[in-house]
Design brief:
The chain is of the alpha+beta class and 109 residues long. The protein has helices spanning 20-36, 65-72, 77-85, and strands at 7-15, 40-47, 54-61, 89-99. It is 31% helix and 33% strand. It has a 4-stranded antiparallel beta sheet with strand order 2-3-1-4, covered by helices on one side. The radius of gyration is 14 Å and the shape is globular.
Length: 109
């Protein structure tokens, strides 16, 4: 499947700003492994300017939601990340999975 198809995984988490250094320490190794996956075509992280502990990211994948749940999110490298970061959450994470529409509605400069 080419990179104009597939899904976009959009995640928002909410942590205390004082937990950010520990969060980034746990996040970076997993981020590096995820972006090395051949099916991952895009990954960008965002931070709320008003609430620094609110972080969002977008991951684009060439595969389906079912593939992501069965083959990607079950990889062992997520285990330590979830064990370390989930207790930092001050409210539940928000997750959306959207189908990508295609190249006619994709732009990059």
């Amino acid at each position: 499947m080419d990179s104009s198809h597939g899904i976009s995984l959009q995640v928002t988490i909410f942590i205390k700003p004082e937990d950010l250094p520990k969060f980034w320490e746990s996040f970076m190794p997993v981020y590096n492994k995820v972006i090395a996956e051949p099916e991952c075509t895009f990954f960008e992280v965002y931070q709320s300017p008003e609430e620094p502990g609110t972080l969002s990211w977008v991951e684009n994948w060439t595969e389906s939601t079912e593939w992501l749940l069965k083959n990607q999110l079950t990889k062992p490298y997520y285990e330590d990340y979830f064990a370390t970061t989930t207790p930092m959450f001050i409210k539940p994470r928000e997750v959306k999975v959207l189908n990508r529409v295609g190249l006619q509605y994709t732009m990059g400069k």
